[in-house]
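User: Show me a protein chain along with its predicted structure.
Assistant: Here is one chain, sequence first, then structure tokens.
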Amino acid sequence: MPTKKLSYRFDRLPVIYPYHLRARNQLSVGDLVYYGPCPPYYGIGEVMNIVENYCIVDFRGTGELEIHKDAFEQRYIIPIHKLNLSHLLMEV
């Protein structure tokens, strides 16, 4: 399988595992998030819905796996705005 050329610098996002204190966060619909343990696999997505401890995230195929929507436990998802990662996002 050929490696997809990513349009974002996912290697600059910190890896945060689900048992880490920084993985415990409050998410809301519309938050920009990424999959903490491995940012390049899924890419950056938007929280579409939250049901109990799970959230539906729309990644729009931004990562290596080209996944569009998936459901995760909240402890696996890291919100970008809470980590103050705005300096890593490129303006278009």
